[in-house]
Design a protein that fits this description.
The chain has one helix at residues 7-58. The chain has 59 residues and is mainly alpha-helical.
């Protein structure tokens, strides 16, 4: 059975879905950005660790 919804209601539903989709997209982009920062930071720490290990082995 099909129900007829007024255009205003359809528009409101669509706007809510768009808002949720944009919020999800922003959250995903933020998560990716934070993950990239964490990976870069880990690489820095890892390279420092390797440098320190090499120095201690030589002494």
């Amino acid at each position: 059975m099909m129900m007829f919804l007024p255009p205003e209601i359809v528009r409101e539903i669509h706007e809510e879905r768009v808002k949720k989709a944009l919020e999800n997209l922003k959250a995903i982009e933020l998560e990716k950005e934070l993950l990239e920062k964490a990976v870069k930071e880990e690489k820095k720490v890892s390279s420092r660790r390797r440098r320190r290990e090499k120095e201690t082995v030589e002494v």
